[in-house]
C-alpha cells in the first residue's frame, strides 16, 4: 500500500469529497491537525499546507516539502494565526468557540472552509460528551451565515464509521 493510498484511506470522507474545491494557489490551513491525516492527504493532492496543533510530533514525521507544521496553543486569549490568509481551511474533530469566528475572515476570496466535528447527541455514543465540544443544531450554518459564506454542502447526521457518532459538517465558499 502506498503512502498516497494510506492518506486517501485515513482522510475523512467529507474532506475527500470537498478538498478539490479548494483553489490550488495559496496555502491551506489544517487546524488542530493531530497526526496530520488531512495535511498529508492535501499535500498528496498538490496543496501547500500549514498544519498547526499544540503537539506536532507526529506531523513533523511527514517529510513532504508541501507541509509546514507549527506548534501553537489554539486556545489562548491571543490568536496565534492573526493576519494570515488561506485558500482553504480544514478542521475536523475540533471545536473551540472563542476563536471560531476568526476562521472565515482568514479565507482569501474564493477560499473554502471544510469543517466537520461532533454534534449534540454524541454523548450517547461516547466521547466527546461535554456540550462545550459538541455543535448545536445548525451552528455551522449560523457561522457561515454570519460571515457571508456560500454553503456548498451541510449535514447534521449520525454516522457509523469509523465509529458511531453524531456529526455536523460544512463545506462553504468565501465568494468575491
The CATH homologous superfamily is named: Vaccinia Virus protein VP39
Give the N-to-C terminal Cα separation: 41 Å
State the CATH topology. Rossmann fold
State the helix count.
4
CATH class placement? Alpha Beta
Please state roughly what percent of the residues sit in beta strands, choosing from under 5%, 5-15%, 15-25%, 25-35%, 35-45% or over 45%: 25-35%
User: How would you describe the shape?
Assistant: globular
The SS-based structural class is: alpha/beta
Report the major sheet: 7 strands, mixed
Biggest sheet: strand arrangement = 3-2-1-4-5-7-6
Contiguous uncertain segments of 5+ residues:
1-5
Explain the overall architecture.
By secondary structure, the protein is α/β, with parallel strands linked by helices. It has one domain: 3-Layer(aba) Sandwich (Rossmann fold), CATH 3.40.50. Helix content is 17%, strand content 31%. It has four helices and seven strands. The longest helix has 8 residues, at 3-10.
